[in-house]
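Look over this one:
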Amino acid sequence: MAKQPPQHQDHQPGSEAEMTPRPRSFMEDWPGGDALAGKTAIISGGDSGIGRAVAIGFAKEGADVVILHKEEHEDAAETLRHIVEAGGRGHAIAGDIGDPQFCARAAAEAVEFLGGRVDILVNNAAEQHPCDDFAEIPIGQVDRTFRTNILGMFWLTKAVLPHMPKGSAIINSTSVTAYKGSPQLVDYASTKGAIVGFTRSLALALWEDRQIRVNGVAPGPIWTPLIPSSFGEERTSKHGSGVPMDRPGQPDEVAPCYLFLADPLRSSYMTGQVLHPNGGTVVNG
């Protein structure tokens, strides 16, 4: 049974403005508060989907937010508007997270906008490209997927880290595919598995001297622009049908995991861990 109308976008990472129905990514039911009052945050892939919901949620809790995005200027502008309406300061930087020079420039610009300090870094940007026959997977695609999904995390984290004080938080977006695999997304799932290792190892590396917590979130099938821009109409229409809850999740249902992990009070005893908002799939990891 179709979960949403058949649709496809021919460009990645896709546009939320073109989706039907639009994802719930504006955190309209989140009451807000002061859990992140005075905090500053950088979110890669913050223009739409999960990144948008996280950015708006952070702003509702009192944070100023810089979002990084690729070419989705309309989506980014809408996200910034909601950040400001929520009471935060927002800034968008466009570029390719797979380029280490862009990561360095973006980090410098973000740090300047945020007043010289970054309390929360969310590594969220990603891309995926299905391939039915692994023997035919393009080498360039594999290189591109790894550059965006995992190497970009290395480069952006390295550039931002000198500006993160003790008590800061890093949150990395991995995926349920890191735990259960995906026959059509071997390169994507591999990068997401690498992110789990990156998260656990970085948590160990950054605690003793810096007291920076590093955690991850592994979403299941979420209704974001990455879905219609990755799959054909039929596959997109059935997105979310393979989980116990029998529906795709919404970005607003995933963002609270990031808000919890960013909150230095509520998640003070959490580092090196991964949360699993995935519609009921048990991954034992």
Q: What stands out?
A: The two ends are 30 Å apart (CA to CA).
